[in-house]
Amino acid sequence: MMPSRFFDRLPRILVHCGLLLVAASCTLVEERIDRRAGGPNVPADTAVHMELAPTEKSNQIAAQTIPPGALKVTITEAILLCLENNRSLVVQRLNPSIQQTLEDQERADFDPAINADVSAGRVKGENLARSGSETESFTTDAAEGIISMEQYFPTGTTVALEAGTQVNDSSLYEDNFYTTRLGMTVTQALLRGFGTDVNLARLQQARLDTRMSEYELRGFTEFLVAEVERTYWDYALARRQIEIVEESLKVARQQLNETQELITVGRLARAELAAVQAEVAAQEQALIEARANEESIRLQFLRLLNPVGPGLWQREVDLIHQPTLPEIKLEDVELHVDVSRRMRPILNEARLEILRGDLELVRTRNGLLPLMDLFITLGKSGYANSFGESVSNISKDDYDALGGLSFQYPIFNRNARAQHRRALLTWEQSQKALENLSQLVEVDVRTAYIEVNRTKQQIAASSVTRMFDEEKLRTETEKLRVGKSTSFLVAQAQRDLLVSRIAEVRALANYLKALIDLYRQDGSLLERRSISVPGREPVNFSTSTQEIP
Length: 549
Prior knowledge:
The protein has 549 residues and is α+β, with helices and mostly antiparallel strands. The protein has 2 domains: 4-38 and 121-152 and 157-192 and 371-408, no CATH class; 44-105 and 202-358 and 418-545, Outer membrane efflux proteins (OEP), CATH 1.20.1600.10. 58% of the residues lie in helices and 17% in strands. The protein has helices at residues 4-8, 10-37, 44-47, 75-85, 87-93, 95-107, 196-199, 201-264, 272-305, 333-343, 345-366, 387-392, 414-481, 487-521, 525-528, and strands spanning 51-52, 71-73, 113-128, 135-152, 157-170, 177-189, 317-319, 371-384, 400-408, 531-532. Strands 3-4-5-6-8-9 form a 6-stranded antiparallel beta sheet. Strands 1-10 form a two-stranded antiparallel sheet. A two-stranded parallel sheet has the order 2-7. Helix 8 packs antiparallel against helix 11.
């Protein structure tokens, strides 16, 4: 038999145990999540933080974001403006914070809850009189107040602390009768719902979803930075194309004047004039198209940068950097492939999706088990004619204890079986999807690598072509002056030179854009531009070690 002193202290023991369990639960949940989800929970403002490593030139952009007029930017400043002001990026940056609210929502399952109930009632009836031969009417008024605190733990344990009092005022008795009780009920899941693995699964999935949103943000940022750089070089090409066409038009008009003079002195036939006039008209048409193309790219560029200040669409853009051949040595393609396996956000998202499927299998496999719970109820009660005395009487030797098992199991359990089967198929699908994505990413990297080499070779080839076309135009012009060529051949040489000059500049711009695409495909673009964005850490995961649970 247990010592009576233990039961005298039982109310205080119950309260202390309950408070300790509540405090321990919060610590247990947080530590468990941190271990399973890869580090502590990141605050929302930090989770979406991104920055560009400052440089001397990039600091100058601050003064240019307010006043209207021409926007003079380096490529680094253009990227910085985009990261700060691009509206699409502003929208995407909210996704991790939004997803994190679902994380907090899942954590709420382990928050303690306080319940309070107050009730009152009356019973009126008849009873046998004390004499035993007659009946007498009676009225009983009853009031009850109960306050309780309930806490669910990741172990599958539910602890409930309860304190309540009840008063009965009956006409059958002279005094009121008070009952005050303190109690604790502990319920432990033994099969379904047992253990931290299953009870923390949803919370861990929410945490993985938050990380997935960070990788999505990283992928979008990579795309946006690459788009800014590509548009920067496209705009530089468009501006240079206008200059080339204007120079070509000037030469064509000069050629028209010379042809008219030769016709006047009788050294050329009047029929030669038509070819030169047609060339001037063609150059004027090319200039109109070049200016329209430049204007379209300018608007697209301003949309990406979205600089602060009035008159957004009326701003001119001056590019400080012009296309030049960078002095870089391209790494081996296999190195780029290895980097892509670790850094591509889409692959890390796919790996997290498999990890999420692992957790879903844990949850659905647990649903196949019967529901069997162990419960224990301990309490002490005090009885008296006043509330104060009933509370004092709790310390007496009286107590109650109840324990038992509850069991429940659907006969067919088809719902749980279907959920588990679906989770297993989805897990297998995620595995196959990762394998497919890995192959596609490798193809993209190798294709981008080939394009870099091709465009670099095109730079030299286009330069040689331009030099030959310059020489051809000079030769045909000299021959025309001595009557050994025609205006048509000179116009054709002018057109060929125009095309080759534009092709030379385009080849250089294409090479720069090919490098950008290669760095985006292997996932290293942001690091190469010193941009800090969530999702930099690769997911430690290997499909070769994964087997169907």
